[in-house]
Structure formats: structure tokens, C-alpha cells
Amino acid sequence: MTGATLIILALALPLFAALSIWIVGKYPNLREAVTLTTAMALLMVVLAILPLILAGLPVRLDLIAPVPGLKIAFAVEPLGMIFACVASFLWIVNSVFSIGYMRGNNEPRQTRFYVCFAIAIAATMGLAFAENLFTLFICYEALTLSTYPLVTHHKNDEARQAGRTYLGILLGSSIVLLLPAIIATWVLTGSVTFTPGGIMAGNVAPLIGGILLLLFLYGIGKAALMPMHRWLPAAMVAPTPVSALLHAVAVVKAGVFTVLKVSVYIFGLDYLRELAMADAALYLAGFTILTASIIALRQDNLKRRLAYSTVSQLSYVILAALILSPLSTMGAALHIAVHAFGKITLFMAAGAIYTAAHKTKVSELAGIGRRMPWTMGAFAIGALSMIGLPPAAGFISKWYMLLGAMEVEQWFAVAVILGSTLLNAAYFLPILYTAFLKPEAADGHGHEHGEAPLPIVLALVTTAAGTILLFLIPGPALELAARLVGQ
Amino acid sequence: MSGLIADLTHHLPALQVVVPLVAAPLCLLAGRAWLAWIIAFAASASATVTATILAYLTFHNGAISYHMGGWAPPWGIEYVVDTANAFILMLVSAISTVVLAYSPASVAREIRPGSQHLFYCMFILCLTGLLGITVTGDAFNVFVFLEISSLSSYALIAMGGQRKALTAAFQYLIMGTIGATFFLIGVGLLYMMTGTLNMADMQARIPSLQDSRPVLAAFAFITVGLALKAALFPLHLWLPNAYAFAPSAVSAFMAATATKVSLYVLLRFTFTIFGAKFAFLNLPLHWVLLVPAVIAMFAGSFSAIFQRDIKRMLAYSSIAQIGYITLGISLASSAGIAAALIHIFNHGLMKAALFCAIGCIFYRIGTTRIEQMAGLGRQMPWTTTAIVVAGLSLLGVPLTAGFISKWYLVQAALQADLWWLVVLVVLSSMLALVYIWRLVEAMYFKEPPPGRGAVAEAPLSMLVPTLLLAGANIYFGIDTRVPVAMSESAATLLLRGQM
Description:
heterodimer; A: 2 strands; B: 499 residues
């Protein structure tokens, strides 16, 4: 099959799934079968693209151009490949988890849930493969809109309030900041195509370039650079599979992916080095990393603590992108994959705890490690990855970030990475301590529970294993990341 | 046979107006609603076909000049069709046809049985007026058709079900008459100075009279009069009530076409007759249009946010959108005029879709209050989908027609080095997000109000045209060849040899 066919398949399969799920919605088993089958087929398609990219062959598809010079087109490059692989693999895992979770908790409106989920994946694929900013923007907005019904799944006042924040910040920032930034890029450079080496050099004065950088960084609200992060904790009201989707697979990754893609392919690392604003932005990212970690320390609600951890981890990617050394850029690309695996494990573990024990607070978790050994074991691996310790994959991305930062003697970044590692440990290790070492509190209720339903445990063990595998065999991911920086 | 076709083709500019003009009294004579509807619909459909052929011909072969009754201009009345007005003719007649297709059920619900045929008579007369204004190349003829369309629209608005429709119509009548009178005074002054009513003739004679006070006064009167008819802020006061209390079909038709035609005339007088040099270099028309346009963008949207009645909300939104169009005109550049024309077209699609959809809702629940919209997302899924699509287009989300408008508008502002305008356009779009959001939230996230029984989807005869219009918003957001090519050709034409 040619590259264009594969891209069409990667976009069409999830959409086809959405349609089929809607049609067979009355038969839950059939519906879930559709989800799982298409998810696996999608992974096959994405993996079929991989050898083409590794061989350096062009994989592209041009659709139409509503306005001259502004076309809807797709072209696969290494970074998009990493993102697509991660997203399509985690869709399978997350679907398995969703089936366990949605059934285990008797959630209403499950068909709508799976339909929106599939559409969100289609949008993610489009985003990963976008050839230019315009296409990326359309997929970015489609992703926001398709995840909105998921965030407001419960349809109560709290969900509606959260939904308003979610849509308000994401749509608002993208329309007010990102879209003008894209238009300005087009006006100044005559192009919005992602080009190796960037398109700004020689076209845009450093001052304007600096303003554009800020517009992009804040306009990409999904990357949750403070103060654009508020949608993320708010969206925690959604069912846990949605949180996993938002925080690991699609939404936030779409954000940092876009940031990375814009800095590498629109600005270009060489051009960014000329910008004083790039330095300033580095401090903003560092500030977000530390502040979000400190806030995470103070959260007792497990999902909220994870949410702030996500805010902090996302800014690692932004920080690494702005260190502007090839090694740290590789670290940023790897961190997209690494954090996805670690964080989805953590969220699924939180969902497992909620399903089995109906507990949502860290302080209630005493002794739960003995009741749910698989879940909490996986949680421990995810936590290690967040902190950046071997044998979890988090170590690798942090390693590259640190190498890169030291190479260009960016000591502030080094200090932030090391400092936040301590903070990460400070908010994850107590959870593990409580779960494994504290005796179970005798609250008199004596909730007897064991592990969560099998699909849930299966899913989170898979991703935990993935986190370790990515540490042991980082080869393909490293190869793609190296190609991203042209090495 | 081929001779007949050639003859017909030759007379198309006249037929464009004559067919609906003849249809109007026929509707009256028909006496029955269904028969009147058939006549009106047939006339409107034929006008659409005529306009499309004219647009095709002018686009490929250049402007067409038609001499009414065989009297050569400047003595006789001349009709001139070029890409600028062919584009408007197409929009007006196509919207009219779709709205007429939509109207039977709506009219049966909203208009007294005895006067339904009068409704169609007035509707087609209004169409005649709008087409006539657009097609004519004679300044006084513009006034005549302006009055035809105005008088018939006063009557149409007064047919609205509530008693307030009468005050709304009266208010519009007073304001509209002032506008038309100003326009007439302006034309009179021009006639006094140039001795001609033919637009091309005026164009040739005005440069030598540029500094004379009557010409300056004429320009002022005409601009203000047309701004009043176009509801440009702050001359928009007649519009919210007129749109809110008119029958649904009338709101849809007028919102999409009436103000647009006045804006077209403004374009024609400013650029073709007076000339861009006169208006923008000798006189400060740039600021005279730009400032109200920007205020309109914000004031209109702000007012829209606080409306409880959806039709009023959309009416205020129209005021803001007219601001965008005027903004494009005020830039006096080829890109700006093209952007204005594109938005005239796209906004027509959005507002027609929205008002038709609101008409569907009114048909079922008998009110347009926002709190009564609660829970309709599940009960009328297709209608509410149409509202969401048209609403997204209004916001300017990519892949909708609205994005294309905003894109060209922003490009035009950037070309003129007006960065701050881009910021304002974007900010005002955010206000649209607020009021569209209120509607979406009511329809999809609120429980139906207590006491309202089951609500069915609107009848197919209303639903299909509504969805067609909503679909057009997406279609013209992706395939932009026709509106963009027509607008750019029209902009070049209007600015030919100027600036």
C-alpha cells in the first residue's frame, strides 16, 4: 500500500469505528468488539507506515485547498510517527480499560462515549500527521470539540461547569492566540508548512518572532503552560478513562506535540537561538514545572494530584524544546511517549481504585497495596517513570534532557529538572508509602474488596510493562527522535 | 429556436426584474395561498436561474449593458450587469428561493389564513425591489426599487403574529423613509450638478465637480441614507425589532439579503460613481466607515449576549456582522472589498440558516425565548444541528464559510498594516462565541422546561431547506472557488483605474 492510502486509512478507520459504534450501539458486546477491532487495525496501519519513515521515504496526502496556499494536507515525519504510534497503541489499551470501567461502574450513555472517543482518535491521527499549521489547527479544534462531550459525560452541574472551563480555555486560547499566530506566520513567511529547519529564519524580525513564540505557547492551551492549565484539573470530573485519554493519549499530548512541532518545523532551533524571548519562555516553563509540582504536593484527591503532575510534566517537554540543543529536543520527543505510558498507567490505577474500592483520596489509600497488588504495583512503576528513575522509561527522556541542557550550559534548566525530580518524588512516594506500608485504617465499614475487574487490571499491567520495555528497548523511539533533529 | 434563446439571453437583465414583478400581482389575483406560493416560487426559481446565467456570462464575457425599451443611455434607463452585482443577484434570488421553499408550513402557522396569498405577493415584490436595486445602472431607478422593496418589507414585518410587529414595522417605516429620502436628496443634488441620472455618465462628470459643495452634500446624504438602510451602527435602531417580530420566513430572507443590497449600493456609489480617490483621499470615508464598523462589531455582539429572545439576539448579531462587512469596505483596497463581498455572501448563508432553524423551533414550540430552547437538542436533533453548524460558521471556525470571510478580512487588514484591527476582529469573534454558546448550552445541557410536552422534529418541508442552508455553510467553507473568484473579480472591477 502506498503512503497516501495508509494515511487515509489511519484517518478513516476511527471515523468508520465511530459510525459503526453508533449504528450497533444497542448491542454492547458488538459495540465493544467494533472498538477493539478498529483500534487494533489502526495500530497495524500506523505500524505499516513506520518502516517507510525509517527508510526516509515521503508519506503524504494532499486533500484540498479552501484558500489558495492554505491546504488540508498530511505528511508523516518522525515526531508525528512517535505520537501516532503511542496514541494508536494506547487506544487499544484504553479501550480495554474503558470496557472494564464503564461496565464496572454502570456508567450511562456508553455508546456516545465510545463514539466521541473514536472521533477524538481520528482527530489525533490527523493532528499527528498534519502537513501544515492549518490542517493541524482544524484537527486541534476537532479534538477539543469531540472530547467535550466526554468531559461533561455526567451531565450534572459540576460537569457542565468543568465543561465550560474546558471549552472556554481551549477554544478561547486557540481562537484568540493560536489562530492569529498562524495567520501572522502565513502573512510574514508566506507559508504554514512544517519544514525541516523552520520557515521563520530570514523572514521574521526577532522581536516579532518573540511575540509569535508567546502567542504559540499560550495559544496551544492543550500544552497547559500556566496560566492556561486550569482546564486540566477541572476536567477531572470526567470518568477516569476520559482522564486517561485527556492526560496520556490525546489532548495534552496534542498540545506538547504541537509546541514541539512548531518549535522544530516552524521556528527552527537555529532561529529560536536568536530570540531573547525563547530564554524568557524557558523560565515560564520552568516556573510551571515547579509551581504545578508544589500544588500537586498539596492535593489529597488522587486524580487532582495526577492532574497537576501532568501540568508539570508537560512543561518538561516545553522546557526541553526551549533548551534548544538537539539532545534535549530528542528528550522532549521521547518524553511525549514516556509520559504517555507512565501517566496512563497512573490514571488507570486511580480508576481501578475507584471501581474496586470507591476511593478517591490519597489519605484513604492506607494498606490498599495489599488488596490490589497488581494495580498498586503498576502504579509504582508509573510513579517511578514520573520521577525519572530506572527501570522506568522516564529515566531515558530526563537523561537526554539533562544531557542537552548541560551541553549548551543551560544551568537553569538543569536546576529545574533536578529540583522537580525531588518534588515529583515528594508527591509520589508518600502515595506508595501509604498504600504499601501503612496498615489499613479500621474505619468500621470494612469495605471488602479485591482487585478491580480483569480488563482494567490487564490494561494497566500492559502499560506498566510498556513503561519498563521502553526503558529496556528504547531503540526505535530513539531512532525516530534522532531523525527529528536530523541526526 | 436558437434565435429565441439568443433573444432570451439578450433580455435576461430585464427578465431578472420583470418576472418577479409580474408574479406579484398574479399572486394577489390567485387569491389562494397554495396557488400564490406556486407562482412566487416559480418566479423566484426563474430569477435564480437568470441570475446564475448572468453571473456566468459576466464572469466570462465581461459586463452586460441592457437598454430598457431600446432607449439608448443616458436618455433611457440602462441596466448594467457585471460580476459585482451578478454575485449579489445570485445570492438574493437563491436565498429567496430556498426561503420560499421553506415557507409554506411556516406561513400556514404564522399568518392569518385570509392573507397568506398577500404574504407571497409582498414577498415576491420585495424580491423584485432588491433585484431591481442591484441590477439597475440608473441612480433614480435605484430609489424606485428601494422604495418597492422597503414598502413591501414594511408590510411583511407587520404581518408578524404579535401586536408589537406593528410598532416594529412603523419604526422601520419611519427610519427607512428617512434613509430613502436622504438617498433621494443625494441623487437629486447629483442630478442638479451633472444633469444625468445614468451612473456611468455621473461617473464621467463628477471628477470635474469634485470640490463643489452640492456634490459633497450629495455624497454625505447618500452615504448616510444607505448606512441607515444597511443598519450600520449607530443607524441600526430599526433592525432588532424588525427582525424579531417579523414572520420567520421574512426574518430569514431579510437578514440574508436586505441590508446586503444596501451595502452593495454603497459600494457602487462610493467606488464606481464618486470614485475611491474622492471618497477616501479627499474625504475621510475610511474613518467614517471604520469607526462605526468597529463599534458595531462590539456593540452588536455585546447586545446579542444579553438578549432573551433568540431572534433579537440574531438581529444584534447581524449588526455586528454588518460591521465586519463595512470594515472591509472601509479599507478601500481590492482585498478589503473582496473580503466585504465574500462576507456578504457567507453571512447571508449563516443568517438564513439560523433564522430558518429558529423558525422551525417556533413552528413547534410557539416561542423564541432562550429559556424555552432548553432540552431541544434531543427533541429536534436536526434543527439544533443546523443551528450549531451555522453558529460555528458565525464564529469563523475553519472549514465553515465564516472562516473564509474572516481569513480574507484579516488578510485585508494586514495588507493595510492595521495589526490592531486583526486583534479587534478576533476579540469580537470571541463575543460571538459567548452568545452562540448560550444557545448551545440551553439546547443541549438543560432539561426541558416543565409543562412542555413532547416536541417533534420540524416538518420536512421546513427542515430540508434549513439543512441545505446549513450544509452550504460547510460547503462554501471548503470549496470557495465561486464566491472568492466572483468577489475578487468584482473588487477589481469596482476599483478599476483607481487608487
